Amino acid sequence: MIELPYSLIIEATEEPDYFGFYSPDLEGFTGIGHSVEDCIYKAKWGMIEHVNMIKETG
Within a 13 Å sphere around the CA of 51, how many CA atoms are in the beta-carbon half? Predict the structure, then answer.
């Protein structure tokens, strides 16, 4: 199981091949994936990058 540092919401979209995701803990953090697993994987690395960007820009 992949552990995430922040909460993650995954939602189905109108397109059957895509899911949307976001974290209510990280303002502006969103993404899409082809499956729930894809969303979780992308979110894990995206959260790290997002937090680093916030730290760099203040």
Answer: 10
Give the DSSP letter string of 8-52. Answer: -EEEE-SSTT-EEEE-TTSTT-EEEESSHHHHHHHHHHHHHHHHH
* Rounded Cα–Cα distance for residues 58 and 52 (Å): 10
- Residue percentage of the chain with pLDDT more than 70: 100
User: Residue 5 in contact with residue 47, Cβ under 8 Å?
Assistant: yes
- Structure tokens of 56? 């760099």
Is 1 exposed, middle or buried, given 0-12, 13-18 or 19+ CB atoms closer than 10 A?
exposed
Q: Is the pTM of this model over 0.85?
A: yes
